[in-house]
Structure formats: C-alpha cells, structure tokens
Amino acid sequence: MKHGILGVGGVGGFIGAILAHAGHDVILLLRPETLGNHPATLTLESPLGSISAPVARAATLAEDVDVLWVTVKATQLGASLAAVPEPARAGIVVPLLNGVDHVAVLRERFGARVVAGTFAGESERVAPGRIAHTSPFARFVFHASGKAVLEPAARALEQTGCVCSFEADEATMLWRKLVMLAPFALTTSALGGTIGAVRSSPPWRQRLLACAREACQVARGSGAGVDEAATLRAFDGFPESMRSSMSKDVAAGRPPELDAIAGPILRGGARLGIAVPATAELVATVTERATGVLNLFVSESQQVGPLAPGSPETRPGTVSRIASPGRRASGQARDSIPTSAAAERTPGRSGRLSQQLSDCSGHWRA
Predict the structure, then answer these.
(1) Per residue in 307-364, pLDDT tens?
(2) Between these two residues, 341 and 62, which has the higher pLDDT value?
C-alpha cells in the first residue's frame, strides 16, 4: 500500500515509521522550507520497540496514494491542505486530529472518502525524522467505513504493539476521546504540570473531574454514547508523568489547540443550554498562561534584535493582536487559578468564551 503523511509530527511520524518498516510505501508531505533538511528516514523510539525505515519526501502530493493520513495540529489544518492540490489523488483520508470539527472541514474538500479516526498515546517529534513515543500504549480507532482499505495498515500497527479497532458510531468515537482529552489537556496546561500533579492536588483533581462531567453532558447532548463513570475512572490509569501536547505547546510558546479541544464543549454547551463553568475557567487560565509565555518569547527576541520579515512573530494577526507591549507572565502560583480572573467568571460566560476561542484561533495561526 502507498501512504501519504500530512503532518510529520509525533503522530504522523509514529504511523509513518511503523508502516514504512512493515514494507508499505510512505511519502512525507513537508513544507518547502523544511523539505531539504528532513532525512530520508523515520526513526521511532518507543516502549513498543525502536525502528528506522526509509521514506519518500515531497512538498506536494503529486501521485496517487491509497491512504492520506492527516496528522497536523488543528491550528495548521487549513494551510497544510495546500500540499494536496489534487484531492482526487487520495484514496481515503484518515484524520487523527484532536476535536470533532475537523471531520466536516475535510469532507468539504474530500467528500465521503474521509474516514474519521482517533489516536491515544503520547508521542512527539524530537528532531526532523526522529519520533519519541513515551506512553506504554498506542490506541487507534477508525470508523468502520474504512475497514476494507485500512486493515493492512491496522495489522502493521498491531504487530508493533498498537491496539486498533473499527467502530460504526462516528460521533461516539470522536467524543469518547474528547471527553478525556479536554480535561487532561486543559488541566495540565493550566497547571503547567503532569497528570500526576493534577491528580495529587485536590483542587486540581476537582477541576479535572468537573471538566470531564461537563464534556460528557455536552457529548451526550450531541448524540454521542459516552460513559461518564468510565471516563472519570480512566484518569487514574494515566501514567504519572504523562503531559498533554497542549501543555508542551504552551510551555514552548507554540499555538495551543484551544479551539479544537475546548471549543466543541463551549459551543455545544451554549447550543444545548448546558452550563460549562469549569471548562470556561480552565480555558481562560490556559489563555492567560499561553499569552504570558508568548510575551516572554517576544521580549527575548526583541532584546536580541529585530525579527526577520515574514517570521511567525511579525506576520499580521499574530503577536500584535494577542500581546500588549510590556506585558509579562503574571507569576501566579501554578496550583491556583488567579482569583482576579476567576471572580469574573460565571457559567453564562461560556458563550462569550466560545467566541473568544474562535478569535483566538485566528490570532495564533501562523
């Protein structure tokens, strides 16, 4: 089989390395400015085993592939699709993005060939062509409509130690992941720590579980058959040192996927009349932390010298819209929500925060 990987980060690189090692043809779709620096191999280091395999590289998809895996960050989805100028070249399209809204976006471009999927695990790109998968598990769920095409890929993944399954209920499949991911990502990002740190602090554990309950309510109202009790129990099974990719993005000054991960809960709550105050409070705190970290990056770059024209920090709609001159990280203790901000927050603000998320996604997009 021939596979295209759009988004060679932790998830895309993980899949590409395993499939290439199993003998599948893999093409990495890379940005033109990074194409020349990316090695012609993918190397995976994982508790499931370490492998290295050759891959092809291209800036655009110029040949037919059986499967196009879309594994970019949600904040990069729109821009990344320029690498696929001819949608018909993709046999089926399997997005493994966080959230639920991306499926409809991709179907506008690729039609019914989009097969929804989810990935659970901790994996990140540590260098071009080098992927570190650190969780003791890797779980894939694919919609049943893609089973005939995806079975060979699923077998290759399973032979490496991954767990793969096919399900017929798309809404339940997507929301089942989101109701666990959103509380995990938001609390670890707001606290700036691991899930172990969240669980060990009674106030933060309470925020984690409150956010999960709200997410489950919205999921059920959206037609998903999620199990709230099972969701709440699952957090105690996460490895102590596990961190969300959102918390890593915030710490590194990268755009967090707030709209993709929290947006469906806030917008769904507003649409369904479900109060989601815990989620709204966490979103506001993550936004404050992310903006503070970004301002520090901007301050340091200004001290070094002027930024190069066209760099992410100087493009319209980025720093100028989210950072005020001279603002710095607040220095608030990481085990508490800033009281000045929390005092303003009420359940009724979820609708306004939902709009702010839409605005924020535009501010962050580079």
Answers:
(1) 333 333 322 222 222 222 223 333 333 222 232 233 333 334 444 454 444 443 333 2
(2) 62
| pLDDT tens, position by position, 80-111 | 999 999 999 999 999 999 999 999 999 999 99
Cβ contacts of residue 56 below 8 Å, gap of 6+? 25, 26, 27, 28, 40
- Please report how many Cα atoms fall inside a 13 Å half-sphere around the Cα of residue 279, on the Cβ side: 36
* Cα distance between residue 174 and residue 116, in whole Å: 8
Sheet (strand 117-120) strand order: 117-120, 139-143, 163-167
Contact in structure between 115 and 145 (CB atoms under 8 Å): yes
Classify strands 41-45 and 51-54 as parallel, antiparallel or unpaired: antiparallel
Alpha carbon distance 23, 322 (integer Å): 46
**Dihedrals phi, psi of 27, to nearest 5 degrees:** -115, 120
Point out which residues pair with 45 in neighbouring strands. 132
Work out the percent of the chain whose per-residue pLDDT is above 70: 80
What lies within 8 Å, CB to CB, of 250 at 6+ separation is: 189, 192, 256, 286, 289, 290, 293
The number of C-alpha atoms within 13 Å of 357 and in the hemisphere containing its C-beta is 27
Q: Is the dihedral of CA 173, 176, 178, 181 positive or negative?
A: negative
Q: What share of the chain is helix, strand, coil (3-state, %, to 5)?
A: 55, 15, 30
The whole-angstrom separation of Cα 326 and Cα 291 is 12
